[in-house]
Fold this sequence. Notes:
The complex is a heterodimer of chains A (about 725) and B (about 170).
Chain A: H1 2-9, H2 11-19, E1 22-23, H3 33-52, H4 62-71, H5 76-103, H6 112-134, H7 139-153, H8 159-167, H9 174-206, E2 220-221, H10 222-247, H11 272-280, H12 286-307, H13 319-342, H14 351-363, H15 371-374, H16 386-400, H17 424-443, H18 452-456, H19 468-471, H20 492-503, H21 506-510, E3 514-523, E4 529-538, E5 542-549, E6 552-558, E7 563-566, E8 574-576, H22 579-591, H23 597-600, E9 602-606, E10 610-612, E11 615-623, E12 629-635, E13 641-650, E14 653-667, E15 670-680, E16 683-694, H24 712-717
Antiparallel strand pairs in A: 1-2, 3-4, 3-16, 4-5, 5-6, 6-7, 7-8, 9-11, 10-11, 11-12, 12-13, 13-14, 14-15, 15-16
Chain B: H1 19-49, E1 59-64, E2 74-84, E3 87-99, E4 105-109, E5 120-122, E6 127-129, E7 136-137, E8 143-145, E9 154-155, E10 157-160, E11 163-167
Antiparallel strand pairs in B: 1-11, 2-3, 3-4, 4-9, 5-6, 6-7, 7-8, 10-11
Amino acid sequence: MRDWLDNRTGFRALLAHLLDEPLPSGVGWWFVTGSIVLFLLSVQLLTGVLLAVFYSPSPDHAYDSVRFIMEQVTFGRVLRGLHFFGASFIVIAAVVHMLRVVAFGSYKKPRELNWVVGVLLLLIILAFALTGYLLPWDQKAYWATTVTLNIARSVPLAGNVVSGLLKGGTDLGALTLMRWYAAHVFLLPACLIVFTVAHIYLMRRHGISGPVKTVSGPAHPFYPYQAIRDTIAIAVVFGLLLTMAVAFNAPLDALADPTDATYVPRPEWYFMSLFELLKHFPGPLEPVATVIIPGLVLTLLFLLPFLDRRPDREPGKRLIVVASFVFVFAIIGALTYQGFHSTPPASAQSDQAIARGEARAAGQRRGPVMVEDVFKNVQALKGITVDEFMGTMGLMSASLGLCCNDCHPGAGTDKVVWESDENPRKVLARQMAFMVQAINRDNFSGRQAVTCWTCHRLRLTPLETPRLDQFYGEAITELDDVISKAEGVPSATQLLDKYLAAIGGADKAAGMTSIAATGKVVAFGSFGGGGNFEYFAQAPDKRAMLSHLPDGESNRTFDGRTGWFAIPLAVVPKYPLTGGELDGARIDAQLSFPAQIARALTGLRVGPVTDIDGKNMYLLQGNGARGAFVSLYFDIKSGLLVRTIRYTPSKIGKVPTQVDYEDYRDVAGVKFPYKWTVTWLDGRDVFDFADVKFNVPIDPAKFGEPVLTLPPTTRAAR
Amino acid sequence: MISLRRSRTTVPTETFSDASRRRFLGSITSGILSVIGGILAFLGGGAVLSSTVRRQEDWLAVSALHDLPDNEPTPVTLSVMRMDGYRQALERRTIFLVKTGESDVAALNATCTHLGCLVAWDKEAQVFKCPCHGGIYDRNGAVQDGPPPEPLAKIAARVDGDRVLVQA
């Protein structure tokens, strides 16, 4: 078989040609460096192809796909580790190889051109490192690339052209990622292969330089006498690399956040000296650090064999060259050291930024809409998602009894300028938000003990003096938000048993697995009018309330994992739910099925008897996730659920959402409330149910991301 | 043949005083490189060959029992949320439900076992027909004619009250 193959391909002659390269006597361990670089490049190529199988180069998917590689793909973590740490290994190996060539004077005639090709290869390796950096689309990727693009912009004359070429669009975004990806996986590998082949060809053409002083003795073939040294060295390097890939996770920061002013970009260690150099040449001197010094060093590097043309190879006879290299590397080393000591480590960065990054990494893969993505001139409530921001706005207006246009000129019209500070009331509100945050931070360990409502109570100006008639008049009882267990009331289990019995029995309730209903809705708030609605719920935790209003579709959906809020003509027409709002949507979905209440809430407690509209109520309270909690009011007489209020946390206080239930009617043996009044900080909807069915199949798409539809007039206008 | 070298001193074979030493070093070299290659192949193969799709089978209510005619395959489209790698995707699948008894329902995958086209129920001929290469199946999914190598795949189905549930 081998003979047949050799007869047709001549592979034996090729192998002999490749392996029997005669090496001069005295070639030893110093000459393994090139093989190590070649081996590491092969590992990068292989692991790069494997990572590309799972990676998706778009800002919407890049981060999730890298997390997927790290968490789901078999050996994905190790493969990414090999690729990530392999990049550092290559830089080290390539520099060591270069230093070996310099030390042995191997760049001298007739190998000048091979030196030039080698320097080009070093630049290609650094370009690989630079372009690969952006691909995970995490904080480090985003900010390091931002700095890189700005460095490119500082290039005299051609700066904007170069920066634009690298950026692809007006901002760092999808176009940037795609062209860096294209460079990383197509352009640079092609260049690398071409120049590596040229490098090896030139090395073979002239033979290796061998020791500085000729060592007498016969020549030895490369295989196996030098090959065994190369292989052992490769095995040691690979062992180290594999150990690092297995022992350490290749870093993956939080999802890229263009609004995070607290993030301190830190380049990879091999670019740290350039990063640090920038600090020494501020302002108009910046091009000195970005172009002139690196350009000068690079030019000298390229020209080395043409400047040092004497035949002497001993380092002692080339003191200027040796001293220059020692000087340059000492500077690089010092700048790198300085860089690591002057840049705060990631752990010292703001807790807020890290917490936010973790929150995003934990649950918001699809990319939350941040307040800065939507509104300009946000100052006191920066860095929160738009749904949390809308909740805080609602808290302010509800606490002071104001409307949007009391602070934002033109709100409610198409002439609104949200970012305008023209109204002094808005500027004051911002100062108050800072003040309340400071009070809570300085006096209550950050707990939201003081909120807008604490003082304002629907008044623009808080009252200052006690009202004596109230003090001596009838007591006004207001329960705390979080209640304590009261004496003389039924237990939570008894209360829930009574409720389930009242609606038709625990078995009937447990048999409910889905609800599909339709009816009429009357909506209040910024978008008015009545319309029809569809309501769907699927046990254990899917829910959709789809209102078909004159202004378009108003949808709230939760599919068990992600939730959406879509209201046409609202300030923000559609956004994915995050944090407290997402937790609240999950609670709503779970509580759609009465039999699930005990499972959905923890820490159930029954408070003192209270009343709603003159009727006595038992108040049951339980906790959801991350600070959310729910109060459920049960009519003492009928045992039926009359009201739920869920509280979700926000930056300036708890956001309440209240639902009142009336008109219980029988549906397949279970009593179901046919009238719901949903009240939240920005409005109130009344749902009158007409047709309710249990346990019918529901298209899962109903619970997914809603399609934002606009009324015909709006569509025509756009 | 193009010479890669301008000048070359050939290696005198007589300098290889110990051919067995050369063979020994050669086998060590090959062995080490094979181990490294094996590790990389194992890691790469593991990543590419092992499935990352974690399928979760749920019982889905797909129809009311009273809506199904007796012994007449009825097509139903399932919409199931699946994890598609790193993203969640809505997967749509067509199945046929056949009411085979008072409270018995069989569910068949509508995908032809030949090359994956979707079969359709021919009411007149009372058979499933594949539009691509003429595969024919009976109402139970058994191959009657044509190239399909296997019967239509059965899907677990059960009846709960008036609800028909399938595992998908």
